[in-house]
Amino acid sequence: MSELLQRRLALLGASEHLPLLGQNLHGIERECLRVDADGQLALTPHPRALGSTLTHPQITTDYSESLLEFITPTEPDPADTLADLERIHRFTYAKLAGERLWSASMPCPLPDEDTIPIADYGSSNIGRLKYVYRKGLALRYGKTMQCIAGIHYNFSLAEALWPLLQRAEGDPRSARDFQSESYIGLIRNFRRYSWLLMYLFGASPALDAGFMRGRPHQLKHLDENTLYLPWATSLRMSDLGYQSSAQSGLTPCYNDLPSYTDSLRQAVSTPYPPYAEFGTKKDGEWQQLNTNVIQIENEYYSSIRPKRVTYSGERPIQALMARGVQYIEVRCLDINPFLPLGIDLAEARFLDLFLLYCALEDSPLLADGECRTCTDNFLKTVKEGRRPGLHLQRRGEQVALRDWGQQLIDAFAPIAELLDRQHGGDGHAQALAAQRAKLEDPSLTPSAQVLAEMQAHGESFAQFALRQSQAHEEYFRATPLNGGQQAAFEAMAAQSLAEQAELEAQPRGDFDAFVAAYQASIIGLAV
């Protein structure tokens, strides 16, 4: 533990400041495929009873019409965030007829590429833009890759915590810059240590064999229909025999916010020859928003992002450049197929410890190849994290994953003590102990349990995930929402449909001009 972290924890542990640790905000986005009773991809339209995917604040779709995305409100207590997520699941099941939610991150057996439906957001210009963006993703990467699901964990520290730290440390920067650069420092540390999350929570060591579509790969056959790697933790976060050559040079090292936003701005406005060969239109029909390295900021695939709530019509880069970083979005978490929500309170509490450590610990700039080392450690862990005796690179030396992990758990312990003192009980200490046990015994990790369960039941990946999906469906249907909760969701769905209808009733204007203006909003930004 650095002197900086010791000082910060002492400051936050003072009785007058401890309540700040109860004001962190949490939000969860959970993606999941709709499947039919046999575990095949549901090819039906998004249920209208769930509301409009364009305007509903909590229930939408991600890439495919079949890929639901649930978005919770933000809450100070992650237990409340999970309760929000559970209510969204229960409402959704009340509106699903003959379909269920897929339990795993890796998809069910998929139909051919042409059959996978792209999400439809209606006839408004913004709805069409969202659709064309997804057509571009299909063109560039294929539809199969876009059917992978995950959990995104949104986290922010108390707004009042940053000026407290800044005063205590005599930092001369503006309040906005101090907060933004502190979040960028969090992200640098996340890059250093996120391999640990992959080891502890990775839950995708296997996948349906059809997923690879005949592409070359290094996976092994567990059975005729299942591919896996014996020591893998998260094949979802590996290259899976697939890489975006366009994005290979786009690796922001998060040494400051301006360099991050500029790298994305350049990517959104720099042509990429192979995409230029496709063109933006074919036979008069839009097939991608532009021919650049990425069409929009969200196309950059990263394990964590700095974020700022956007105003209406504002793009993410614009918000970051104008007002700085407000929170971070952790994007590398697998859905745990043993859990109805894909995540539980113990995992959320550990994530809080991990992210607070990353935020409060010293975070030197990534230099001398450390950025590459961070990526290598991450990829090594997702492919062989449970391999006995596995070593990672730390400051130019080999260190055992297990030893480094235990050292980090030790470093989180004082933070767990402060959070438990603020919240009452010992929930954070228990969450820490549960993760320490996984380092001591890899068979306790979700990835190991998935393989053990499949082998114990003689199941393929698809059979295992379908069985878990059925169990989760029974769990949610067993306890419907109460009348007030159901009515609130019904009203939200109706409101979203009304908002989309109102949007589509307005004069639409030329879509080509709309796309051009959207593109220009980034190109014209000052660096």
TrEMBL record:
Originating species: Zestomonas carbonaria
InterPro entries: Gln_synth/guanido_kin_cat_dom, Glu_cys_ligase, Glut_cys_ligase
Gene Ontology molecular functions: ATP binding; glutamate-cysteine ligase activity; metal ion binding
The protein, known as: Glutamate--cysteine ligase
EC number: 6.3.2.2
SUPFAM superfamilies: Glutamine synthetase/guanido kinase
GO cellular component terms attached to this protein's record: cytosol
Catalysed reaction, written as an equation: L-cysteine + L-glutamate + ATP = gamma-L-glutamyl-L-cysteine + ADP + phosphate + H(+)
The entry's keywords: ATP-binding, Glutathione biosynthesis, Ligase, Nucleotide-binding
NCBIfam families referenced in this protein's UniProt entry, alphabetically: glu_cys_ligase
Limits of the Glutamate--cysteine ligase domain: 10-379
Highest taxon, organism lineage: Bacteria
